[in-house]
């Protein structure tokens, strides 16, 4: 039976959910205001296997998220070329010492057993790295994994939204100001109108509390500001892998000389979207120290976005007690481009009444969203 479904939030989670629901002939309306969206500002690294994060639940989700990109790209490529959106050109990782680098190689080899999508694992000497990336100024040995990828988040959501519109569904670039539930229907207030739906997906990232707090729910989600710089260089970056030096600043090369440098993680800036000169200068200096032939003139634009994070830095997605016919996802933090598509697909599957590999997550939102006493 066709359901009338509202999705609030057109970042990577909401757009993926709306795309798969559209593919399954549902009646979907996607509301997205867009200001501060994390997905469009993000760096685009998909390479979770060598993270030192110990949380096994997170690792399972991130590993499945990286794997799911193959399915998403195959599904999307039925409608349009995806080469500009997703490229699997590998990742090069650095560690502080040779011993830490060999530990990383061991971890990669162990993890490959359950995650063959990690691809080839190749320790590289400094010279071998420079044969691939002549402009790199880092002079240590490194580790290359061929399964690493980069995604252009803005292009991905644009493409998913284009497809859902072509399938006859609706995208509204509007802010939802209020939601309420009457007679088994969700009422969505936007642009002075009230729309009714059978089912609601809340995929509004760091802003999820704005819609649930007025319904008297506590929501454990906070905003984290992230900034990065986008360089437009004359360097031939075709097929360059993502470079992850020691520290928090990564180098993400796209085709045609575009290189992203970032990103910052600012927990105390709220929803502020103003570029911060001092932090951006720091990123610029790191870019100049890592790559030759980079100059101030190459800075094409600054990107600022708002990530969502929870008090224990875990993402959640599923149902909320006392909120019928509603699914929610938030708190994806720094790895949401990696986990976002598989979360969006899972929400779509749940709406369609299908079982998924993530049944254990269904009730997790109740740890982060609950009725005020
Ligand atoms: C600088 C930066 C770099 C990053 N780099 C990486 C990376 O390399 N790899 C990685 O895996 N992850 C990365 N991330 C994290 C990733 O981008 C996010 O976790 C992910 O995009 C979150 O997706 P989302 O769909 O949950 O939320 P968002 O992308 O934030 O989308 C939420 C959308 O909901 C809309 N919305 C909210 N409230 C309303 C409302 N009331 N009405 C209508 N619309 C509403 C917002 O406007 C927004 O468009 C990065 C993030 C940033 C900021």
From TrEMBL:
Q: Name one Pfam family in it.
A: DAO
Per the record, the domain of life is Bacteria
What does the similarity note say?
Belongs to the DadA oxidoreductase family.
Q: Which organism is this entry from? A: Candidatus Vagococcus giribetii
Required cofactors, per record? FAD
- The identity of this protein, by name, is FAD-binding oxidoreductase
Q: Which residues form the FAD dependent oxidoreductase domain?
A: 4-350
What keywords appear on the UniProt entry?
A: Flavoprotein, Oxidoreductase
Q: Where are the transmembrane segments?
A: none
